[in-house]
């Protein structure tokens, strides 16, 4: 399993041609208390850089983009009842959706954990 | 991810100013944003926790961006009554009132607090003066409007050497009375001069959260020491603008620039209480003809409170739509209400849809949301009133 990061603060953990997507700990910290999450449904087609989910904190609504293109296999239903999971465990049980990758070469431009740490440190 | 933070949308001022507590906020761990032309703290530990702390204990807000004015001079009562629909003549010394600065067409230029100062007040020279607090984002326009409309013999001072703190919450009185003995004797909308370690304070029992609490005008050189002394009290934590917004929304209190604009009249905004009885009978304030006609016969649109179904917040800018999806109104404030546990909003709707219980359809980013008109406040006010209001 390999975890990649985007400059829009999503993480994607890849195993073969399937992957899990969420937002980073840095992102949840910036958003603050999350009160609503809308995740894509199974079968939904997402494209790299396109809007895939919505996350709302007390102060603002934000879009979550798909790090890569693919077909959604599952949205995290637990977030509907308890959106605060994104605050408490953003890179674990607060995941947003799983998908089947359309083109694994789209992962090439993403950051690894060390590169993302450097990226966040400079913000 | 993109973050279209509501507060950051308001950046218009080219030069961002700092307030006397700027360094203090940063040392307290605040996240700073630009608001009303100033660097201001939006949150410290988090909006939700700060909001709930104010409802349970006491929160310290820095509202020094607001404009504190002292107005004095011959016939100042009549001069103010020509600009505001308040019964200024009937306002006793040390009494405060909520009022509205009105344009000639009855539109709201600002909402404000007005108090009559006692003789020998700590805010300036001369007798029979008034103290006015106006919104930060509108204070320069207000000053220009007041200066243009007030006779030259009336002095108008912007008290920009004073900071303004608000201490809000059910335990605010315990905390502040410990530091400034005597403030507990004030009732809601009463005010007085107090001394704190040699600093001349002007303290009113008022605020904008729906809770009991105080607003404290303090010389800027003493504000950091006072803020330190307040947060050293076990009841008090510093609170940012984020929670200030969610608290006032739950209290049903409109925010200028959002729920109130120059296109809004007092009756549309459901602020009829700000039109005092004598002024309704006598008129003589800007826009009186239109405002009084609306007060008697109703306005076409009305500000109402809404509870929103589901969990997704519906925010400022969302549309109120009819059964065919045509726009008939607009959400002017909205968000998740921490003390209510669901999304709430304020909207302007046609008067026929303003009765509590009415089902309302909202449309936000192409998505429909069901809402219901409810009476405001969403969370009961807990003001501490003493004696009969004057």
Automatic annotation (TrEMBL), chain A:
It comes from Sphingomonas spermidinifaciens. Pfam families: GCV_H (PF01597). The glycine cleavage system is composed of four proteins: P, T, L and H. HAMAP family: GcvH (MF_00272). Binds 1 lipoyl cofactor covalently. The glycine cleavage system catalyzes the degradation of glycine. The H protein shuttles the methylamine group of glycine from the P protein to the T protein. The keyword Membrane does not apply. Keywords: Lipoyl. The keyword Transmembrane does not apply. One of its GO terms (biological process) is protein lipoylation. This is Glycine cleavage system H protein. GO terms for cellular component: cytosol; glycine cleavage complex. The modification N6-lipoyllysine is found at residue 59. Residues 18-100 form the Lipoyl-binding domain. Belongs to the GcvH family. InterPro entries: 2-oxoA_DH_lipoyl-BS, Biotin_lipoyl, GCV_H, GCV_H/Fam206, GCV_H_sub, Single_hybrid_motif. Its cofactor is (R)-lipoate.
TrEMBL record, chain B:
It is an enzyme of class 2 (transferase). Pfam families: GCV_T, GCV_T_C. Its EC number is 2.1.2.10. GO terms for cellular component: glycine cleavage complex. Gene3D superfamilies: Aminomethyltransferase beta-barrel domains, Aminomethyltransferase fragment, Probable tRNA modification gtpase trme, domain 1. Substrate binds at residue 215. This is aminomethyltransferase. PANTHER family: AMINOMETHYLTRANSFERASE, AMINOMETHYLTRANSFERASE, MITOCHONDRIAL. NCBIfam families: gcvT (TIGR00528), PRK00389.1 (NF001567), PRK13579.1 (NF010093).
């Amino acid at each position: 399993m390999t975890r990649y990061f985007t400059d829009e603060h999503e993480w994607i953990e890849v195993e073969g041609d399937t992957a899990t997507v969420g937002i980073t700990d840095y992102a949840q910290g910036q958003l603050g208390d999350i009160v609503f999450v809308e995740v894509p449904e199974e079968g939904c087609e997402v494209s790299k850089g396109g809007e895939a989910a919505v996350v709302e904190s007390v102060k603002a609504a934000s879009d979550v983009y798909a790090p890569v293109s693919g077909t959604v296999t599952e949205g995290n239903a637990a977030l509907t009842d308890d959106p605060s999971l994104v605050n408490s465990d953003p890179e674990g049980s607060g995941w947003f959706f799983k998908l089947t990758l359309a083109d694994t070469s789209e992962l090439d431009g993403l950051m690894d954990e060390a590169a993302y740490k450097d990226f966040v440190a400079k913000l | 991810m993109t973050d279209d933070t509501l507060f950051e949308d308001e950046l218009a001022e080219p030069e961002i100013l700092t307030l006397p507590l700027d360094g203090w906020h940063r040392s307290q761990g605040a996240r700073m944003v630009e608001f009303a032309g100033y660097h201001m703290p939006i949150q410290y530990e988090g909006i939700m926790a700060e909001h709930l702390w104010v409802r349970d204990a006491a929160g310290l807000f820095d509202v020094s961006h607001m404009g504190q004015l002292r107005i004095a001079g011959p016939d100042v009562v009549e001069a103010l009554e020509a600009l505001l629909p308040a019964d200024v003549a009937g306002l006793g010394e040390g009494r405060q009132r909520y009022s509205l600065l009105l344009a000639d067409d009855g539109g709201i230029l600002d909402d404000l607090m007005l108090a009559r100062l006692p003789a020998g007040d700590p805010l300036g020279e001369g007798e029979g003066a008034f103290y006015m607090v106006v919104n930060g984002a509108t204070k320069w326009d207000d000053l220009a409007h007041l200066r243009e409309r007030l006779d030259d013999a009336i002095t108008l001072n912007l008290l920009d050497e004073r900071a303004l703190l608000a201490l809000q919450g059910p335990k605010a009185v315990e905390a502040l009375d410990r530091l400034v003995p005597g403030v507990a004797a004030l009732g809601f909308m009463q005010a007085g001069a107090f001394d704190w370690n040699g600093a001349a304070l002007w303290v009113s029992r008022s605020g904008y959260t729906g809770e009991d609490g105080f607003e404290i005008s303090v010389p800027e050189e003493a504000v950091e020491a006072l803020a330190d002394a307040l947060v050293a009290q076990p009841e008090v934590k510093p609170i940012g603008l984020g929670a200030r917004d969610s608290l006032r929304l739950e209290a049903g209190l409109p925010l200028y620039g959002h729920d109130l604009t120059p296109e809004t009249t007092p009756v549309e905004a459901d602020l009829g209480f700000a039109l005092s009885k004598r002024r309704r009978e006598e008129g003589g304030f800007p826009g009186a003809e239109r405002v009084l006609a609306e007060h008697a016969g109703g306005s076409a649109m009305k500000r109402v409170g809404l509870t929103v179904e589901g969990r997704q917040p519906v925010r400022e800018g969302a549309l109120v739509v009819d059964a065919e999806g045509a726009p008939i109104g607009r959400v002017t404030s909205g968000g998740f209400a921490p003390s209510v546990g669901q999304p709430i909003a304020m909207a302007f709707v046609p008067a026929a849809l303003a009765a509590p219980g009415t089902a309302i359809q909202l449309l936000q980013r192409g998505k429909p949301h069901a809402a219901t008109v409810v009476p405001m406040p969403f969370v009961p006010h807990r003001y501490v009133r003493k004696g009969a209001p004057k």
